[in-house]
What we know:
Layout: E1 6-11, H1 18-29, E2 32-35, H2 36-49, H3 57-66, E3 69-71, E4 80-82, E5 85-86, H4 94-104, H5 107-121, E6 126-131, H6 134-138, E7 144-149, H7 152-163, H8 168-187, E8 200-203, H9 209-225
Parallel strand pairs: 1-6, 1-7, 2-6, 7-8
Antiparallel strand pairs: 3-4, 4-5
Helix pairs in contact: 1-9, 2-3, 2-4, 7-8
Amino acid sequence: MTAFAGQVTLDGPSGTGKSSVARAVALELGAAYLDTGAMYRAATVAVLDAGVDLDDADGITRAVTQAAIGIGTDAATEQVTVDGTDVTERIRGTEVTRAVSPVSAVPAVRRHLVDAQRSLVADATAVVVEGRDIGTVVLPDATLKVYLTAAPEARAERRAAQLGVTDPARIAAIAEDLRRRDAYDSTRADSPLRPATDAVTVDSTHWERHQTIARIVELARERAEA
């Protein structure tokens, strides 16, 4: 079997399990891994800690560009820091989740972080990068581009399971939140969420996680052997 060398991009809407799937794919391929969503969440921590209003695009940009955001590329571990403080757990909290969309929608913030993302993976022989605009903006010449999607209801069920939520009304509310996030991300002016024209769409609505991982690994190895 030919070892994979190249870049795999994994884009898609919130709640599809991109991070866990991409990390597992990277481990299977022996590749580096970059979670760009974690970078935007870390940037959001910097904005919140600076006390900047989420309607203040200039203030958001200053807070992000002045912050030292650190993120590892080892698929076996996760570590995210802001100005030397470990925020790995904090970036997944409700406060950050509610604020990350307006922060990530600021064009200057996206340009700043895209440059950082490209620098982080520039020297990697093999890398899996996940986010929302990786195949379209960050790495448009990637070896394999995957657009991972699933129905909002399926994504809501998975997120509810992660949170230990069983109440149908709360699960329905999660699904509605995901639809709103989809609409926000897909209609923003800068780098909207959309599949690259040459991306392979993987719909995981009716798949278990291991099936999704296996399919993407299969696609990557097919490209390596082509």
